[in-house]
């Protein structure tokens, strides 16, 4: 995906918004620095797309060594998957029939990893995937002290008082 030639070198005040503008030299330098840092640590990385929301940027990150992309919303993950990116971490919890159904459908064209912090979420996702004949990877979201999402450490095996059997 390339920008039309007339936008390259144009003044920012003449640009239509919203528009992603990159200092390509700085981007490539930062990307190289990050890739080398992660490789030196022997780790994998899956950058969050919340800043760029652009498959082209994610593709460049993967070419530099990232294993995929992280998305906040199913709609974002769908766009990345349709652009050929397969390894997508969905950072927000699969809550609600529509979201769960869309994640199961996403598994037909990608290999998402879904963050769950309650067994009911995993059960509903599993049921939706079974109906479609797909498999979905899941990870347990653990609250690391920020109290935003995640199961409280050491509470595994205990059911929430708000959960009905």
| CATH superfamily heading of the domain at 44-156 | Alanine racemase
- Given helix and strand content, the structural type is alpha/beta
Please report the first level of CATH classification, the CATH class of the domain at 44-156: Alpha Beta
* Span between termini: 49 Å
Question: Helical stretch count?
Answer: 5
Describe the overall structure.
The chain is α/β, with parallel strands linked by helices and 165 residues long. Helices cover 36% and strands 8% of the residues. It has a four-stranded parallel beta sheet. β2 (88-90), α4 (97-106) and β3 (113-116) form a beta-alpha-beta unit. The longest helix has 17 residues, at 24-40. The termini are far apart.
Summary, kept brief:
This protein is of the alpha/beta class and 165 residues long.
